[in-house]
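Human: I wish I could look at a protein chain and see how it folds. This is the protein in question:
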Amino acid sequence: MIKAVTIDLWGTVVVDSPSTDERYRRERLAGLETTLLRFGFRVPAADLARAYGESGRHLARIWRRWRDVPVERHVTLLLQAVDPALPGRVGSEAIIALTTAYSSPALLAPPSLDEGTGRVLEALRERDIAVGLVSNTLRTPGEVLRTILKRQGVLNRFAATVFSDECGVRKPDPAIFDIALERLGMDRKEVVHVGDDPILDVEGARAAGLRVIQLAPGQGWASRYTPDAVIERLRDLPGVLADLERSERRPAANPAIARLRPRFLARPTGSR
């Protein structure tokens, strides 16, 4: 019996892809420059732009290991790229203010909900199916994304929200799905994951032993591991869940899936 669904954010609950987070680059840099000036530190815009790119490369190295760090660490990395001594010089109060300036631009131009999100979440609630959000983050942290979802009127529909910057691990590592299962209080055989990415969502959820529905508008599935179902629109999810429940399908008995979990868990932990 399906008792819960875990669902991806970017490209699923919201229509925007993860890469759109970089559209806030100019606002982040302007906010950092203004905040530094307020605390008595004049840093040229060109230096901040260079440091932004350098910190992004450092973060990418962490993310490639399927690990993550809090957004405060983003700011520290950026300041260190300007001057290794700068984080210590600006002080803790300034770090807090800089972190707010860095992380909040998405509040002014938030990602757009999929048109079916509200109806789908309501339909699942009516069927007593708990929903957990499982999402990687980039430069916009989980705390801000929760605020956006609250303003959009859907945050209270999620029984659990798991963001990579807060738990330190990213999809497709199965550990992030394990965290969601623990917070939902569900056994993996009772849960189906829904997401668009063939690696992060399909392979990751498979490695965690979950059934998977891939949202793949007009393209079908593209992964080493076949999802249990493919939907082209999020609004189709309730019907496909009902079909899965009737068929009582389980994750494919593929020995490669059993080998996938150790491959992810063996990755180095990286910077936390």
